[in-house]
Amino acid sequence: MTQLKVTQVRSAIGRPQDQKDTVRRLGIHRLHETVIKEDRPEIRGMIAKVRHLVTVEEIAEDHPKRRSTKKQEAGEESA
């Protein structure tokens, strides 16, 4: 699945409260901070609202990250 790399490049100081809230809800807390988000319509809408404050790059994931469970980790240790 495609992911988006969102970086805040302009300050939210002096902006309307809804734009400040949108930047926070994207998970960005400081200037030049970068977060990785899944490419979903609701995230695209949030980015569109604050497009003048952030830059966006698409990241194409070749293969999904593999998550191991505790059972798998225990099995690998004993093997």
End-to-end Cα distance, whole Å, is: 33 Å
Number of strands: 3
How big is the Rg? 17 Å
Q: Tell me which oligomeric state these chains represent.
A: single chain
Shape: elongated
CATH superfamily: Ribosomal protein L30/L7
Q: Quickly give the CATH architecture.
A: 2-Layer Sandwich
Q: Which regions have little confidence, pLDDT < 50, spanning 5+ residues?
A: none
How many separate structural domains? 1
**Which structural category fits the helices and strands?**
alpha+beta
Strand order of the largest sheet: 2-1-3
Largest sheet, in brief, is: 3 strands, antiparallel
Give the overall pLDDT as a whole number.
Answer: 86
Keywords:
Ribosomal Protein L30, Chain: A; elongated; alpha+beta; 3 helices; 3-stranded antiparallel β-sheet; 79 residues
